[in-house]
Here is the input.
Amino acid sequence: MNTIVEVTAINLELIIFLAIDVTIAIILLGAMKFLSGLSANVNATEELAKEDNFAFGISVAGSIAALGIVLTGAISGETADSFLMEAIGMFFYGSLGLILIKVGRIIHDRLALNKLEKNDLIKKRNITVGLVDAAGAIATAIIIRAVLLWVDGLDINTFIAIISGFVVSQAMLVFVTRLKERHYAKNNQGDCLQDAFAKGQIALAIRYMGQAISTALAVTAASYFLTYSPDTLVGNLIGWLVFGIIMTILVSVLTAIAKYIILWGINLVEEVDQQHNIGVASVEMAISISIALILTSLMV
Here is the structure.
C-alpha cells in the first residue's frame, strides 16, 4: 500500500513539473512567432495565412524549432529543488534562449550572410533564403542546448558560460560559411554562394542546412571533454572553440569520404551547383548530419 502511495506521489509530482514546463514552453513558442513577425516588420498571422508566404513560414518554423531545441536543455524536471525553481529556471533559460536565437540571426545576417538582404528576400517569398535562415537558427540552438546541459546552477557564472557558448556557435557558423563560399567559388568560376541563395537555388540551401547543423553537432562534442567550472570560464571558452574547430574539420573529412562512397558516380558540383538537383542535395544533407550524429555519439 505504501509503495502505491509513493508511486502516486511521484507521478503527481512529474505531472506538475510537466504542466509547468509545457505551459511556459507554449508561451515562449508563441512569443517567438510574434517576434519573428516583429523583426521582419510584418504581421506574422497575415503573412502566414493571408499572404501565403512560404519563405516566411519556413523562417518562423526554424525559429520555433530552434527554441524547442533550447527548451529541452532548460528542463530540469525532478532535479529541480521545487516547482517554483523549475518555473524560474525554465522561464529564464527559455527567455535567454529566445533572445540569443534572435541575436544569433542578426549576427548571422550581418557577418555570415553579409551580402544578403534577408528580410527583403523572405518578404519576396525566396524559399532558399528562408531555408538558410532556419538552418542558422537551428544550428545556434543545438549549441545553446549543449551548453545548458553542460552548466550547473542558476547564477551569473552559468549566464556567462551560456553567452560564451553562444559566441562560439556564431564564430563557427561564420567560419564554416566562409569556407563553403570559397569552395563554391572554386568550383563555379568564382561565383558567389550568397548570390546563388538570392537567386533562389534551393538545392544549395538544402546542402547548407546539412553543413550548418552538422557543424553545430560537432561543436557540442566539447561538452563531453570539458568539465564545467565557474573558475575556468575563459579556459572553457577557448576549449569549446578549439574542440569545435577540430571536430568540425573531422566531421568535414569523414563526410567527404562518406559522400564519395555513398554517391559514387555522381558529380556533386554538376548536379547540385549547376543543375540544382534537390534530391542529391537532400542526400548530401542527410549524410552530413548522420556523420556528425554518429561521431558525437561516440564521444559520450
